[in-house]
Amino acid sequence: MAYDNAVSALGKICQFHRDGIDAAQVIPAWLGCLPIKDDKIEAKVVHDQLCSMVERSDAQVLGPHSQYLPKIVSIFAEVLCNGKELATDETTTRMISVLKRFQQTLPPDFLASTFSTLQPQQQLMLQSILST
Q1: Between vectors from CA 68 to CA 99 and to CA 6, what angle results, nearest 5°?
Q2: How many CB atoms lie within 10 A of CB 75?
Q3: Overall pTM > 0.85
Q4: What is the SS3 assignment for 49-68?
Q5: Alpha-carbon dihedral angle through residues 14, 17, 19, 24, given to the nearest 10 degrees
Q6: Which residues neighbour 31 within 8 Å (Cβ) at sequence distance 6 or greater?
Q7: What percent of the chain shows pLDDT beyond 90?
Q8: Among candidates 70, 78, 58, which has minimal Cα distance to 126?
Q9: C-alpha to C-alpha distance for 63 and 24, rounded to whole angstroms
């Protein structure tokens, strides 16, 4: 639980006090800690926070040349596969909207490559979501 709270605090620093940190170092480290799973309350807060940053097309969260998008898709897939445990209904709906936007705007090869790195269960779940 302490780990999840620390990851949450780091996310809040990334979101609200970015000018005081080396975002190029801290944001990838934060993404590497996600998704969090033990503290269910904090997980919902952090995953909502990530979704908000992605919805805003936050350049530092997406990374140079969108290099963090595969990690973000992986986080979203894991959160969505866990149902209501790791995100609120509102956040899951927003994550699905973001994934559908990615499907419409990103090259198919990029998405196929990203999906190939996911667990089979996650791939099936995303294919089902994106086909509706």
Answers
A1: 100
A2: 24
A3: yes
A4: HHHHHHHCCCHHHHCHHHCC
A5: -10
A6: 50, 61, 68, 71, 72, 75
A7: 92
A8: 78
A9: 8
DSSP-derived letter for residue 19 is: G
- Domain tally, the chain: 1
CB 52 within 8 A of CB 14: no
Domain range for 16: 1-131
Core vs surface per residue 102-122: b (16+ CB within 10 A) or e? beeeeeeeebeebbeebeeeb
Predicted local distance difference test score (pLDDT) of residue 132? 79
Arithmetic mean of pLDDT, 40-68? 95
Does position 1 have pLDDT exceeding 90, yes or no?
Answer: no
Question: How does pLDDT run across 73-121, given as a tens digit for each residue?
Answer: 999 999 999 989 999 999 999 999 999 999 999 999 998 999 999 999 9
Q: Which amino acid is at 15?
A: Q
Tokens at 96, concatenated: 């699905």
- Please give the span between the terminal C-alpha atoms of the chain, in angstroms, as a whole number: 36
Find the DSSP H helices in the chain. Answer: 2-16, 23-32, 40-55, 59-62, 69-81, 89-105, 108-116, 120-130
Is 90 exceeded by the pLDDT of residue 54?
yes
